[in-house]
Fold Acyl-CoA:diacylglycerol acyltransferase.
Amino acid sequence: MLKDQTPTRRRVLKAAGGLSAAAALGGAGVLAGAAPASAAGDGFGLRVTERGESDPRMWWYRFSTDQTGWDPAVNVLLPEDYHSSGRTYPVLYLLHGGGLDQDFMSFDKAGIRGLVGGRPIIVVMPDGGHAGWYSNPVSSNVGPRNWETFHMKQLLPWIDANFRTYAEYDGRAVSGFSMGGFGAWKYTAKYYGHFASVSAHSGPASLRRDLGAVAHWANVSSAAADLAGGSIYGMPLWDEARVSADNPVERIDSYRGKRIFMVAGTSPDPVNWFERITEGEVLAGQREFRGLLDNAGIAYEAREEPGGHVFRHEMFKQDLDGMIERLRKA
């Protein structure tokens, strides 16, 4: 389970050559009704290179796209009655965290089927890079790694074209863990009309606080794990406009009218310096975010739970129930 994979962050540090704490914060503690996808082909800049549709619920696809330079994949978890009901369903885009072992399979390994159970929702779980930060980087030495464009301009319309979804604001939610929680905040603010519900599980909400710890974290982790020295926001000088465009606490009004849920840990392992720094930064950033939402009169639901930088299964199930209540019904 994601919750039990905390030691993988140490492996991330080791594999990346002993990154600093700022670099490692990206590591996860882990991660309109159209024709069925089996009848679909290419489109939206994507070409399906592999597919798996033998499992009645968990279908997967691998794509060729000029936006990433390699073939990313996506898992699509279907409702139990998808093949028999003929109904249209809301969609959750669920974004994994950072780490060398994190990808589109992370939530499947964590038991996503059991967590979702029989709830009437499609769950889409795409690749986002080991440290892609759900962004188009300022620079890359390994070819394109434009995860934001892949997700928002290519994958999202492809899903709507190939599955029975509500292709509208009230039909979509986005959530994520750690780096994926940041991606959920970011996509919701930058693409206002796409998601009616947003949630972050130990996901940072402030890029600039504490001398820009999270922005540095994004830069250094991406440089080491994904971009061969490139960066998300620019090094040593940031692209300040891009940081502001991505920074949740600078986009507060963009969350107005949406259902908002967040959770962070209050007691990371006092012996594990990585755990302490990581979740401490997440918690402080979420508190800053909540204060700004309060000042703007924007409602939200927040939890502070014992423990550190882990994916909390019970919190996710509560979050999922809130999403389904908010979204258009199947």
Summary: Residues 273-296 form the longest helix (24 residues). Residues 68 and 144 are 5 Å apart (CA to CA). The first strand starts at residue 47 and ends at 52. The two ends are 29 Å apart (CA to CA).
